[in-house]
Amino acid sequence: MEKFIKHSGSALPLRRSNVDTDQIIPAVYLKRITKSGFEDGLFAAWRNDPSFVLNQPQFKNATILVAGPDFGTGSSREHAVWALQNYGFKVVLSSRFADIFRGNSQKMGLLTVILTQDEIENIWQTIEKSADTQITVDLESKTVSYDGKTLTFTIDDYTRWRLMEGLDDIGLTFTKIDEVSKFEEKRASFKPKTLPIL
Amino acid sequence: MGKTLAEKIWSEHVVSSTAGEPDLLYIDLHLIHEVTSPQAFDGLRLANRKVRRPDLTIATEDHNVPTLNIDKPIADPVSKLQVDTLRKNCVEFGVRLHSLGDVDQGIVHVVGPQLGITQPGMTIVCGDSHTSTHGAFGALAFGIGTSEVEHVLATQTLPLLRPKTMAINVEGSLKAGVTSKDIILAVIAKIGTGGGQGYILEYRGSAIRELSMEARMTICNMSIEAGARAGLIAPDQTTFDYVKGKPHAPTGAEWDLAVAYWKTLTTDSDAKFDKEVNLNADELAPFVTWGTNPGQGLPLSASVPNPSDFANAEDRGAAERALEYMDLKPGTPLKSIKVDTVFLGSCTNGRIEDLRSAASIIKGKKIASSLRLLVVPGSARVRLQAESEGLDKVFLDAGAEWRSAGCSMCLGMNPDQLKPGERAASTSNRNFEGRQGKGGRTHLVSPLVAAATALKGTLASPADL
């Protein structure tokens, strides 16, 4: 996973609430067996509409998605995170994220930042007025800066450290694998096994 | 202070706990399917890792598989490649797989309980958000992403921050014609699609205790639709009776040991939930969604709401968008809405009791000529059971299509899809835009409402026939 310390870029306003992962990447795109190439499926149904914000040339190079509340609800498909990353997004800002989507983002190094809805509204208004506004998201200082303003956000220290170091969770868990073995020795004998097939 | 059920199961699975870090939780059962696993197995191969516990892992083919002509090769080459990839991965890593055509193939959340590998007190994960279904047994079960699938394959654990707990108290008794699907749709309408975010839900109260295991699964299944990763119900005699005798259920002295433990799996009387929500079962009626998220639901007797009635600007905007997508006008009685397709199936309502209750309404009658009724059993065994009871004939005689098992039109990954503009009454779990096919419109309903709607042609409950 790539380290995330600080990112600056322009942003795209997605003024919709409850954007579920079926909208982020429809199921027909999930048949692929790789983690790349999902950018064509990102918001696929909405992109048929020429006025949809992703089709507006002024937001073409945006790397920060500024989304409405309850972003990423529904299906657990991590393809939603891959599609956003494949398209070029590094950060998503929203007032509320669905739990599984947020967890998936944090595994892949797509930073999800929670701001208040008022703060999101102000950013929307700013970037709608001037699409080339540069927004800087600094994970070290836990701030979002744009247009002379600085907002702070919270994130748990462990996730922040892991993202800033670009550490893979599996590698970290392997440092505790002896404890896993010890735990396994104590597991109740009546717990079911899938093998052999009965 | 006592512990809630969720807290008990959680603490009994903590492998390692460090202040300021997520707990490392042991996973008792990992369910796999073709769509969210290929990249995880690739990750194992790249890092030269093995599946740590193939004996706690099981795979089935469900999401993208066809429900017609399952004895022939899968026609869609991309779907076929994904299924073939699962088959190769399961052979390479020694994972048990139930393939298309196998008697234990079916939707992963229907297969686990029927094999008896879903038991109280377990931690269960799957790369599918409806894993919460297994919570009906008093298990802590939740959906995960593909990175987490890889993590569980490699280590049989997951690092997780402990969620808060919420009690959903449903007291009273359901009236005839009202089902557990109506309970959960009413819960979601009440707390919203984000209401459960950060929580594990525990469904409690007399109305919950009266429910069968399958009805309980329907409720827990849709916990994610309220934003909660997991939802559970304390195990009781109904649970024990259901598990007993299943292929992987404990036997003899092990059974007694297990039941003695399972009986401890209740929320202590002095435990405190972070939040409580109350619902009166006596007041519930058949529910139906009118919008494009599962929180946009109302009793069937109501009318399409007017967006201007919503005080909150976000809800108003969402309602406006939803009505435009659904092509509905405010004030239209829900019962006057004509549907083109009725879908009976999915991990929410594709079990034998669901098929029986729908068949009881349809028996001896014909579906409306204006629509199609698609009946998709949740698993091959559900299909066989239904056929042994003659339910297939009831559906076929009424003019319905009787299919093989899979997720089917619930998510429209296989050929079972709505056409643009087509409207469905569906016993599944999500009415998102395009969920059941690009441009398709979905109304979520119970199996009873689905059956009555199929006969009438417009959204209806059995009482309307």
Automatic annotation (TrEMBL), chain A:
Domain annotation Aconitase A/isopropylmalate dehydratase small subunit swivel: ranges: 1-116
EC number(s) recorded for this UniProt protein: 4.2.1.33
An MF annotation (GO) of this entry: 3-isopropylmalate dehydratase activity
Gene3D superfamilies (UniProt xref): Aconitase, domain 4
Catalytic activity annotation: (2R,3S)-3-isopropylmalate = (2S)-2-isopropylmalate
Pathway(s) per entry: Amino-acid biosynthesis; L-leucine biosynthesis; L-leucine from 3-methyl-2-oxobutanoate: step 2/4
Gene Ontology annotations for the cellular component aspect, listed alphabetically: 3-isopropylmalate dehydratase complex
Keyword Amino-acid biosynthesis: yes
Record key words, sorted: Amino-acid biosynthesis, Branched-chain amino acid biosynthesis, Leucine biosynthesis, Lyase
GO biological process, one term: L-leucine biosynthetic process
InterPro entries registered for this protein in UniProt: 3-IsopropMal_deHydase_ssu (IPR004431), Aconitase/3IPM_dehydase_swvl (IPR015928), AconitaseA/IPMdHydase_ssu_swvl (IPR000573), IPMI_Swivel (IPR033940), LeuD (IPR050075)
PANTHER family named in the record: 3-ISOPROPYLMALATE DEHYDRATASE SMALL SUBUNIT (PTHR43345:SF5), 3-ISOPROPYLMALATE DEHYDRATASE SMALL SUBUNIT 2-RELATED-RELATED (PTHR43345)
Family membership: Belongs to the LeuD family. LeuD type 1 subfamily.
Free-text function comment from the UniProt entry: Catalyzes the isomerization between 2-isopropylmalate and 3-isopropylmalate, via the formation of 2-isopropylmaleate.
Record text on subunit structure and interactions: Heterodimer of LeuC and LeuD.
UniProt-recorded name of the protein: 3-isopropylmalate dehydratase
The organism of origin for this protein: freshwater metagenome
Lineage, broadest ranks: unclassified sequences, metagenomes, ecological metagenomes
From TrEMBL, chain B:
Region (Disordered): 418-440
Domain Aconitase/3-isopropylmalate dehydratase large subunit alpha/beta/alpha: 7-457
Pathway given in the UniProt record: Amino-acid biosynthesis; L-leucine biosynthesis; L-leucine from 3-methyl-2-oxobutanoate: step 2/4
Reactions catalysed according to its record: (2R,3S)-3-isopropylmalate = (2S)-2-isopropylmalate
Keywords on record: 4Fe-4S, Amino-acid biosynthesis, Branched-chain amino acid biosynthesis, Iron, Iron-sulfur, Leucine biosynthesis, Lyase, Metal-binding
GO MF assignments: 3-isopropylmalate dehydratase activity; 4 iron, 4 sulfur cluster binding; metal ion binding
Cofactor field: [4Fe-4S] cluster
Similarity section: Belongs to the aconitase/IPM isomerase family.
Function: Catalyzes the isomerization between 2-isopropylmalate and 3-isopropylmalate, via the formation of 2-isopropylmaleate.
Stated name of the protein: 3-isopropylmalate dehydratase
